[in-house]
Amino acid sequence: MEPSPLSRFAILIGEARHISDAYGGGARMIDPQTVTFGSAAEPGQDGRGRSQAHLANLDLNLLVFLRELIRERNVTRAAERIGVTQPTASAALSRLRRHFDDELLVRVRGGYLLSPLAVQLAEQVDTVCAAVERIFAANAEFDPATSEREFNLIMADYAVAVLGERLSQLMDATAPLTRLHIMLVKESLVSGIAETIRFVDGVVAPPTSRFALPDFRSVELFRDRWVCLTAADNPAIKDGALHMDDLERLSWVAPYHRDSSVSSAVPITRQLALLGLRPRIAVRVESYQAVPYFVAGTERIALMQERLAAKFANRLDLRILECPGEPEPIVEKLWWHERVEDDPAHRWFRQLIAGVAAQLDL
């Protein structure tokens, strides 16, 4: 039987153990104290007697199997996906279980569930495999009309609402065989951005201190401003305008909010702190686009990016009001690691994103 593309890729990366950056950084993204694909003992074991990762002992075939196992949650289907036999897949699962000292796949009535550790690994394995794939797909030239490359982009759902539709249309029209993997911002991704950015094509985010690193590159995409969002018939707003005391007494809906007494890179938390506000947060959500739904039909208020607020105001009978005080301007940038600066495919991708941003209404 002809090996599947995934099988050929698994064989290929199994022969490429010298590519340290493709996996070494990925291991650190999970936990530098626990990731130890090597079987031989190394100097400097941790308290549990597990050796540190050693690239000479890595079998990157296991990464591909782990990715498909997590996706399928079934050994047989994972084996079919990568084109190996059931005994080979079972042996790979046994090796992974020994390495992680964890079941990874737990039998329950009616099927299997991922263990808590496997759920954690799921956030990383796709990104690491994609990085390895990009290394072997690298070429001195890039033809968007024929390329099958996958581009990985981290962004908030706010940026998705602003850029996503047009970016999708342009990629479909100019590079129909390429794939786009959008990863929505999570705190775990942002907190480890120095490592994460090495394994993705870009991150769309505001310029916070976490991005002030010498090997980061960026281009400004667009600007926006903060406005307040309320229900159109909110009786708590008397004269059609907001004042600072209104912001203090009204209940809030806040995305990604953390305690404002703690220094935070979360935009909403930062703006509330700059305005000197410690309001009552009635609803916290891990999404910008969810905010309007928890404002509509209530006396709550929210701080929102104007471009996003405009997309929901008429649909949900909401009102956009000027924010009292002086909130900071919003600047969104595309960030990437310097190592891909001269990659022709990456250059095309970032120019495409910048072109989409340039077409936005000011």
Provide a concise account of the structure shown.
The protein is of the alpha/beta class. Helices cover 40% and strands 18% of the residues. A hairpin with a 2-residue loop joins strand 1 and strand 2 (111-114).
Contiguous runs where pLDDT drops below 50 for at least 5 residues? 1-53
Radius of gyration: 24 Å
Order of secondary-structure elements: HHHHHEEHEHEHHEEEHEHEHEHEEH
Instruction: Output the CATH topology of the domain at 1-137.
Output: Arc Repressor Mutant, subunit A
Strand content: 15-25%
Task: Bin the helical content.
Answer: 40-55%
The geometry reads as globular
The N- and C-terminal alpha carbons lie at a distance of: 56 Å
How many strands, what sense, and barrel or not for the largest sheet? 5 strands, mixed
Derived from helix and strand composition plus strand pairing, the structural class reads alpha/beta
The number of distinct helices, counting runs of at least 4 residues, comes to 14
Strand order of the largest sheet: 4-3-5-12-6
CATH-level-4 superfamily name of the domain at 1-137? Winged helix-like DNA-binding domain superfamily/Winged helix DNA-binding domain
Kindly provide the name of the CATH class of the domain at 1-137: Mainly Alpha
Q: What oligomeric state do these chains adopt? A: single chain
Annotation, overall tally of beta strands: 12
Per CATH, the architecture of the domain at 1-137 is Orthogonal Bundle
Summarize model confidence as the mean pLDDT: 80
